[in-house]
Specification:
globular; 7-stranded mixed beta sheet; Spore Coat Polysaccharide Biosynthesis Protein SpsA, Chain A; alpha/beta
Amino acid sequence: MLSICILGVLTALYAVLFLFFSIGLLRAKKDKEKSEKFWTVSVIVPLRNEEEHAKRTLEALNAQDYTGEWEVICVNDRSTDNTPQILEEFAAAHPRFSVVHVPMDAPYLESPKKRALETGFKQAKYEILMTMDADCLPPKGWVRSMANRFRGNIAIVQGPKKNSGSPGVVHAFQKLETLGYTSIEAAGFSMGIPMVASAAALAYKKDLFFKVGGFGDLVHLSSGDDDMLVHKMIHEPDVGFCYNLDKEAVVETAPVDTFKGLLNQRARWSSNGTSYSNHLYTFFLTLIYTFYVWLFVSPWLALFLDFPWSWFLVPFAVKFAVDVLFLSIGAIRLGETKLLAALPMTELLQVPIITVAVPLGIFKIFRWK
C-alpha cells in the first residue's frame, strides 16, 4: 500500500508540474511594442574547435539588421583546429567583430565555457550582453528582437531555440525534446519562476552580471552558465525578466548526430542537478527523476518479478497525456506542430536516456569538446 501511495504522489507531482507549465505557456505573450531606446549590445560567442560551424555562424551574425551600436566578440577557447585562423580572418574583414584568445596554458576548469564567456564580457564595450553558442544560426532580426525587450526594469531576456537536422531518429528526438525544453523555459519565465535557461539565446545587462559577481561561485561546476546564473540574478532587487516569443528571436542550433553524443550532452546538462543553491528545487528535481527511474525499471519488474503491469502503465499513460497536452501547446505557440509526429518515439526514448544520463552527469562521466 505504501508503494502505491508513493507512486501515486510521484505521478500526481509530474502531472501537476506539466499542467502548471501548460498554463504558463498559454499565458506567455508575444510582444508588439517598440523599444524605448536603442540599447548598445555586445554579442559574445565562445568557440572551441568549431571550424565546422564558425564561418556560417559569423556570417549569420554579420547579417543582423540591428541599427543601434553593437559588436561581436569571438572568444577562441584554446582551439587546436583552424578556428583561430577563421576568426582572425573574418574579424580583419569586418570591423564590428573582434577576437579574444584564452591562453593555451590556461589552468584546467570544470567548466571552461564560463571562463571563455567571462573573458569576452570583460572586453565588452556595451550595455547589453548577448550570448550565443558557436553552432547556432540566429535569424537576421535576432539582435534587434532581443534588444527590443529591455524595457522598464527588464534586465534578463531569454530567447527560444530549435534544432536543425534531418528527419532521422536521433535528430527528430532532439528537435522535439528541444521544443520541450524551450517550452519549459517560456512557461517558467511567464509564470515568474524561471526554472531553466539557455545560453544559446540569452541576454542580460552587463552591470547586473558583474553586480552578482559574474560566474564566481559557479565556476567550479560543469555547466550552469545559463540557468544557475539567471537564478542568481533574479534575486537582485527590482530585476525584471521576460521570455521573447518573437519568431525573429528563434536561434537554430545544430544537433548531435549519434545517440552516444546525445547521451554525453545530456549527462553534461544534468551534471549540476545536485548543486542548485535552492535545496527545495534540487529536491523537486530528485522527485521527478525518481519518477523517470520508476518508469524505466517497472516494465522489467513486471516481466521478471510478477509486479502488476498497471504499476507501469498507469503512470506512463498519465505522463504521455500531460506531455501531449504540454508539447501541443508549445508546438502551436512556437509554430512547430510538425514535430509532434515524433512524439510516440520520443516518449519511449526519453525515459531510458534521462535515467542513464543523470548518474553519468553527477559522477562526471562525460567530456567537453
